[in-house]
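User: I'm writing a tutorial on reading structure tokens. Could you give me a worked example: one chain, its sequence, then its tokens, then a sentence or two explaining what the tokens reveal?
Assistant: Sure. Here is the example chain.
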Amino acid sequence: MMLTLKKQLRLKLQNELPGKVAHIEVAPYRKVDFTEVDILNAKKSGVLILFYLKNNEIYLALTQRCQYDGKHSGQISFPGGKVEETDKDIYHTALRETNEEIGVIMQDIEVIGQLTNVFIPVSNFLVFPIVGFINYLPQFNIDNNEVEELIELKLTDLINTRELVQNEVKLANNTKLKVPSFVFNGKIIWGATALILNELRHLLFELELN
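And here are its predicted structure tokens:
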């Protein structure tokens, strides 16, 4: 199943992506179209959608951020972070940050493409979601300065999600907002991470993984 997923998803990523439709479903509280000026002035970051096998099931690795004085404190995200001057490209950024945050060996990850970029206006980041596979169960080593908890999401749980759940979340400025979200094992996933997950969900609907 892993090889089939990698082969079919690689082909899908080479064609037109369902990013705009998928993003609109998750973000009715914010716009998804931004100007060229918005994008050009944004800071760039790379995150990794990492597929791996555990107990003969395919999983994705997510992280819950530590609490800190910032706009994304405590939120659930894919491992990743901002571009550094020493990074060769955005793929290197995503792999390096994944290694630093959860200890996965960069050289063992096979990158097959990327999903649609996500602009986060509140922090002025343009996020590049990179898709990668590793052919064994990683020995995760969590950086407790950045990551409060590793969240292992079973791929079938994402595939079997037929509709999103409305949840109330509190923003950094204490504003409360009702947003469409994913809920897995009691964890509420919203915002940019939910946008990325929803596009992946759209792509998975179209694959034949049996």
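What the tokens reveal: Residues 2-205 form a domain with the Nucleoside Triphosphate Pyrophosphohydrolase fold (CATH 3.90.79.10). The CA atoms of residues 117 and 128 lie 5 Å apart.
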